[in-house]
Amino acid sequence: MPASPNPLWDIPTRVFHWLIVCCLPIAWWSAEEERFDVHQWTGYTVLVLVSSRILWGFIGSRHSRFTDFVVGPARLGAYLRGQGGRSAGHNPLGGWSVLLLLSLLLAQAISGLFNSDDVLFSGPLYYWADSDFRDAMGLVHDLAFNGLLALVCLHIFAVFYHQFKLKEKLLQAMLHGSALGRIGTEAPAPWWWAVIVVLLIGLALWWGLLQAPQSSLNW
Ligand code: HEM
Ligand code: HEM
User: Fold this and answer.
1) Domains (ranges, CATH) in the chain?
2) Residue 118: its pLDDT value, please?
3) pLDDT, tens digit, for every residue of 47-79?
4) 155 lines ligand 1 (CB under 6 A)
5) Is the pLDDT of residue 147 over 60?
6) Per-residue confidence at 87, pLDDT binned at 50, 70, 90?
7) What are the residues whose beta carbons fall under 8 Å from the beta carbon of 3, sequence distance 6 or more?
8) Confidence at residue 134, expressed as pLDDT on a 0 to 100 scale
9) Of 6, 28, 53, 148, which is the most exposed, with the fewest CB atoms less than 10 Å away?
């Protein structure tokens, strides 16, 4: 029986990706419907997932690491001029878009912690900040979401372009780990490291938010 190939995308990277994909529409819907009970828990989930993915970018499998896909301007320029060689994982432009997507998701989730609907619901760090900072975070929450919407549309367009025009099996690899022409070059990091990362980040968030003052009277 042939040995199965090393995955290009390890299990944690795929789980982080598809869970984030599920969370964003729920976060959007729940904000529109003012279901802030659902909204805050979806937001916390995104915060833990994105923070874990960022840490996984340092300790995860080869192609999930930032060092594998974040390249300097020279290599990015060469890629844009069609001169770069093929990379196994994210291409140089894709690598930067991943970084931007993760940063926007993080900004969105963190700014939400300071946000309020000015009626019934306040994020857990609302009373921790002064009003200028809250206003700034409210603006970040608005702008980051518009940025995310634009970038996600571009992301899906780029994935479809590579998938259907250039005939690269991106979707199969993001679903199954590897696919024809999309194979990892090293054995994956143990998936249970990611479970520990998620648990530690979840616990740190829970503990950190418990320390926050509950209302302005607690100052
Ligand atoms: C909510 C919207 C989405 C967000 C925020 C998002 C974000 C991301 C991120 C951060 C990555 C990098 C994966 C990593 O290294 O961790 C990625 C890769 C990928 N995403 Fe998405 N994604 C979204 C929606 C989608 C959808 C709807 C599809 C399918 C149509 C998709 C298909 C892919 C594929 C195939 C890759 C791998 C690209 C490659 O091979 O370089 N994404 N996405
Ligand atoms: C990545 C995760 C999140 C996404 C995608 C998201 C998305 C949104 C969107 C689209 C809106 C409506 C636009 C606006 O008024 O700004 C909104 C509003 C809001 N979000 Fe989030 N959010 C996230 C995380 C959070 C978190 C963690 C909290 C707090 C626990 C939070 C609290 C709020 C509040 C209080 C509002 C109402 C703001 C207002 O009425 O002006 N959000 N969010």
Assistant:
1) 11-214 (1.20.950.20)
2) 85
3) 999 999 999 999 999 999 999 999 999 999 999
4) yes
5) yes
6) confident
7) none
8) 96
9) 28
Length of the chain: 219
Instruction: Provide the CB-side half-sphere exposure for 135 (13 A, CA).
Output: 3
Ligand closest to 118 (CA) is 2
> SS3 for 9?
coil
- Beta-bridged to residue 61, according to DSSP, are none
Closest residue CA from atom 35 of ligand 2:
116
Asked if 106 and 141 touch (Cβ cutoff 8 Å), the reply is no
Distances from the Cα of 77 to the Cα of 63, 66, 89, 90, angstroms? 21, 18, 18, 15
Indicate which ligand has the atom closest to the C-alpha of 47.
Answer: 2
Task: Using CB atoms within 10 Å of the CB of residue 104, give its burial: 0 to 12 exposed, 13 to 18 middle, 19+ buried.
Answer: buried
Two structure tokens written together for 209: 């938010």
Q: Which tokens go with 17?
A: 């990706």
Quote the pTM value.
0.94
From ligand 1's centre to the CA of 188, what distance in Å?
Answer: 19
Neighbouring CB atoms inside 10 A of 17's CB total: 16
Report CA(21)–ligand 2 centroid distance (Å).
16
Query: What DSSP state is assigned to residue 214?
Result: S
